[in-house]
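Figure-free illustration: sequence to structure, shown twice.
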Amino acid sequence: MSLPASLLRTAGFAALYLLATWLGRQTIMDGTNLSLVWPAAGISAVWFLAQRRSRWRALDVLALAVVTVVVNTATGAPPALAASFVVANLVQAELFGVLFRQWLPHVWGGGGSLPMSRLPELWRLIAAAFVATAAGAMIGPTAAWLVNGVYSPASTAVWLTRNTVSILLIGTVGLRLGYAVRRWHAEHAGLRAVLRAELGSLNLRRALEYTTVVVVSALTYTVAFGFNHGLPLAFPLLAMTVWAGLRLRTGFVILHDLTFGSAAVLFTLHGAGPFAQVHDNALRALIAQAFVGMVAVVGLALALGRDERDRLLADLRASEQAAAEQAIVLATIVDGMAEGLAVMDAQGRLILRNPASGRMFGGLASTTDHMAGTEHYGLFHPDGRIIAAEELPFQRALRTGEPHSMDMVVRNPAVPEGRILHVAATPLPHPINGEPCAVSIFSDVTAERRHRDELASFAGVVAHDLLNPLATVEGWSDAGMTALDEAPEHPAVDDARDGLRRIRRAGIRMRNLINDLLAYTTARDAALAPVDVSLTTLVAELTTARVDQAESGGSPVPRFRADHLPPVHADPVLVRQVLDNLISNAIKYTAPGTTPEVTIAAAAEPGSRVRVEVRDNGIGIPAGQHGRVFDNFHRAHPAAGYTGTGLGLGICRRIVERHGGTIAAEPNPGGRGTCITFTLPAAVSVPAADQRHAPV
C-alpha cells in the first residue's frame, strides 16, 4: 500500500530542512550560538506553503521541531535555546504562510494556480518575508540573550537579514518549482514535456546568450570574491544581474541570483572577497547577505517588470486581434442583412451604411459621404406629402434623444411603382468623432402594407355595402312593430313582437359594427388635413354633449375635470374621434351604481409634442392586457356584460400613429380605473379659441 502524497512531501521537506539546518549551523557566530547564514528559513517557508491543505499538517510541525532540536543540540546549542529556535522558526514559517495567502492569494502557494509574474507581487513577497522574519527575530535572538546573558544587536540584524534573503531566494525558487510541478500534473505531461515548454522559445542565439551570462558571471564573481586584492569590485557584478533581468527568462534569473549569491556569501565567510576586509564576522555576514538580497531584488524586479510589460503587450495584441476579428464578423453581418442600416449624425453625414440600404432607395446612392435631400431619393409620407428633412426619424431621434419610427414611400425613377419602407431610428449612447449619431434600420414592408391596405379597403367596401340591406331590415322591422302595436292582443302577436325586438337589437349591433369598420378604414386611409386645434374647446363640446345625454336618458351624470389644455396641430375630425372614443369608454366601463369621473389633462413636452391623459374611475383593464387593448377586436371584459366591437381603441391608435404620436394604457395612478395617454404634434400658433385662456 503506497503512502499518501502529503506524507511523502513531509518526508522530502524534512530531509531538505535537515540538510539546510546543518549547513546553517556550520556558520555559527562566536559567543551567540546564532548562524550567519540560514537557508532553512527559505525551506521552511516553502514547506508550510506546500502543505497548507495537508491532513497530516501536525506531522509537518512535529518534523520541523524534531529536526531543529536535534541539529541544534548536536552542534552545541543548549536544549533551552534549541527549543526557542523551534518556536521562532514555527512562528516565522506560519506567519509567512498567513501573509502570503492573504497578499498573494492567486499565486501558487497562496491558494491560486499562477506563478509570481508581476512586480507588485515581488514587493508583497518581500514584505511578507520581512514581517515574518521580524517576528522570528523577536524570539530567537532574545532567547540567545537570556541563555548567554549578553544581548547582541548585530545578532538581531543578522537574523533579520539572513532569513529575509533566504526566504526571498530559496522561497522564490520553491514557488517556481511548485508551480512547474502543479502544471506538470495538471497537463498529465512528463518532465520532458514541461522542459520543452520552458525551453521551447530558445534558439541557438538565445542559448548562446544564456551560456555567455553564466560564464561571464562565473568569471566576474571569481575575480571579485576569489582573490584578496582589496579592491571594491562588488558593484560591477550588478551589471550581470541587470543583463539577466532585462534579457533572460525569470526562472533563469532566480537560479542565477541564488547560485551566485550563495557563492558570494561562501567566499565572504571564508575570508575572501571585497567584504572580507570587515573584521567583525557578524557585520561581514550582514553586508554580504545584504548585497545578495539587493542583487536578488534588482534581478527579480527587472525580470518581473519585463514579464508584466510583455504580458500587457501580448494582451493588447490579442485584444486588437479580437477587436479586428469582431469588426470583420460585424461587418459581414451588417453587409449581409436584408434590412438596410445606416449610421448618421445630425448633419446627415453617413458614418456607416450597408449595401441593402442603397438597394432599398433604388440604388440612388449619394455622391458624397452626406445623405442627399429627401427630393433626391423621392421620400413621401403614405398620404403623398413630401417628407421634410427635419421629419426623418434619425433627425427626430437626435432631437429628442428617444427612438422614432415611421412609414415612408420611396418613389423615384429607379422605383417608379413605389416602395414602402418602415424606418426605425435609435440614438447611439456614445458620440462618434465627437458628434451624436443615430442608427436607422430600413425594412421593406411594401407587400405587408399593401396586403393590409387591401384588407382594410375590403372591410370598408363590405361595411358600406352592408348598410343598404341593413337599412331595409331595420325599416321593415320598424313597420312590422308599428303594425303589431295596432293588432289585438294574442299570444302569436306577442311572440312576433318579441322576435321583431330581437331583430332590431341585432340590427343595432350590426350597425355599430359597420360604423366602427368604416371609422377604422377612415382612420387608416383618409387624407389628413392638420390644422391648429383647440383641445380646450373640443373637450368642452364633448363633455357637454355627454352630460346632456346622461340627463336626458336618466343615467348618472358624469363628472368631468379638464384644465386648460395646450393646442395641437392635427386633423380636427380625427382628434375629435379619438377623444370621443376615450371619453365614451371611460363612461361606459364604470361599475354599476358608480358615478363616472373623468379627468382630461395635457402638457407640452420636448420635441414640439403635447401629451394628453384621460383618467377614469372605471373597472380598469385586467393585468397583462394594457398593451393588447389596442389590438383590433380585442375586448378586455367580454363576459362582464359591456357591449362593444373591440375596434374603438384600435381606431384611436391608428389616428395617433398617423399623426406621428404614441398611445398607451396603464392603471390610474390616482386610484382605481385606467389612464390612457397619447401624444400629438404641438400647435404652430395658439388658436383663437385658446387665446382667451392665455395669460396676459
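We now fold a second protein in the same way, so the two outputs can be compared directly.
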Amino acid sequence: MTATAPREEQLWSRCAGCASLLYRKRLRRNLDVCPECGEHARLAAPERLRQLVDPGTLRPLPDELPETDPIDFVDVLPYSHRLSAARASTGLAEAVVCATATIGGHPAVLAVMDFRFLGGSLGCAVGELITRAAERALDDRIPLILVTASGGARMQEGTLSLMQMATVSQAIAALREAGLLTVSVLTDPTYGGVAASFATNTDLVLAESGARMGFAGPRVIRQVTGRALPEGFQTADVLLRHGQVDMVVQRRSLRGRLGALLAATSPTRAGRPTVPRQEPAPLREHLADAAPALPADPTPPTTPGAPAVRDAWDTVRMARHPGRPTTLDYLDSVFDGFVELHGDRLGGDCPAIVGGVARLADRHVMVIGHQKGHTTAELVARNFGMASPAGHRKALRLMRLAARLGLPVVTLVDTPGADPGVSAEEQGQAAAIAENILTLTVLPTPVLAVITGEGGSGGALALAVADRVLMLENAVYSVISPEGCAAILWPDRSAAPQAARALRLTAPDLCRLGVVDEVVPEPSTAAHDNPAETAHRLRAALLANLLPLLDVPPAMLVRLRRQRFRRFGSTRAGVRAGAR
C-alpha cells in the first residue's frame, strides 16, 4: 500500500475550488480546469505555452543572463540560495519564458510568467528578458503577448526591481509607436509592480476566468482598511464590470480569442499601412553637440562638516518625520508664483497630489508632488500622501498639459505608496500608475524628479520616471517598506531595521546603483530642523540639473530617458552594483 501511494497521488488531484478528487489525466485533458466547478488551476509557463501556440511553431528565445544579486540581499537566507532553489524546483532559468510562435497561423512573440519561480516576481533578469522579447517583436514587426502571473516586484533586488516597471513600459511604448499590437493576458494572480506596469498598459487586456488582479493584495488591503472585502473583489468578472479589462476568457477559448485578435491586426491585411522602424541614433555621441554636458558623477557629494552616514533604519525614520518639509512647503520656499490646478477631469480631485504652474528663477515649470502634511488632521485629510487613481490621473493630465505648453516638469516624491484601499482598486489603481509610467517614458519635455522624503514603490515611480532623479540626503526610495519586507521574508515585522539595511534604500546606496543621479545634502541635523537652508540647497540643485536639459531637443530627451532606464537590465544592474 505504501509503495504505491506516490503513484496513486500522481493519478489523482484535489480541486482547490470545490475539493473534488479528480483523475489527473482527465484534468489535464480539460486544460487543468476542474470539470465540476470550473476552477482554473495555475499553470507552469511551459504548459501555458503548449496550450496557447500552434503545435510545432514554438521557438524559445535565449534566456542566458549573468548571475545577478545586485544588492547582495540577505534575509534569513541569501538571495542567491533562493534563486538556486527556484531554478532546481522549476527547471527554469527565471520567472518568465519567452518565445516566438504562431497562434492560429499568425506570428507573435510571447512572454509567459511562472508563479512557481519566486512568486513570478519581477526582478532585473525578468525585466531584461521581457524587454528583449519586446525588442524582438519590434525587430520582426509582429505582436507581443504577455501572460502575467506575479506577486509584484522582487524585494530581494531592491529599487532596481522597481526600475523594471519603467524599462518594460518603455518597450511597450516603442511597440505602440510602431503600430504593433500588444496584449496582456492576466492569470491568477497578477499584483503589485507587474499589475501597475506592463500587465495593464498594453493595447488589450484579457483576463483568464478566475484571475485576480490589483495593485495591492487582499491581505494588505484588509490590514489597512480593517474591514472585510466585497464579494469577488479583484476577480476577473469584477474587473470586467469596472471596465478594467477588455474581456474575460475561459481557458479553453483563450487560444481562439488570441488568434482572432492577431488576425484582425495582421500587418498583411489589405489596406493596413506599414510604419517603417526608425533605428535609434547613437545617442551619447550626439549629446555633446545637442546640449551642454549633463551632471554625470553618481558619487554622493561631500560637504565640510557633513554628518556621518546614518544607519538605514534611522534614515527611514528621518524620512518619515512629521516636521519634514512637504511639497506645499517647497512650493512656497523654492518656487515662485505657484498656481494650483485641480481635478482629473473624470470625477475626482485627489488631495494627496498637488500640482500647478510655478516659476523657478525666470523659468515657468509644471510642479507635481505628493502632499502629506504635518499635523494628524492634515495627514488624514491628504491620505498620508497616498494618491488615489484620481490623483495619478490628475498628475497625468498636468504632465500632458506641460508637454503641450512646452513646460518642463518637476516632480516632488514623498509617499509611503499608492492608496491601497478598496475604492482605489475598483477605480483602477494599477492601470492609473501604469499609464503614468508609460507616459513619462515618452513625454517630450524635460522631467526632473526629486525624492524628498519617502519614495514608496509604484506610487513613487508614477512620478519618478525622469531625465534626472535627485534625492535629499535623508530620503529613502524602496520597492517595499521595511516593515512589509520584514513581514514577508523574516519571522516578523520586528526585523524592519534589518530589512531596511538589506533593501539598500538610502540616497548613497541608490546613487551607487545608478538609480539616483545626485544627492542633495541636508543641513547638518536634518531638513526639518532648517527648512530654509534645505530649500536653498534644493533650489540650487534643481537649477543646476534643469538648465542643461532645456537645450536638449525633445526627441533626444525621450531617447536619452529611455536609454537611462534600459540600462537597468540584469547585465547592466549587476555590473553597476558590482563595480563600486
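Summary for the second example: Residues 158-177 form the longest helix (20 residues).
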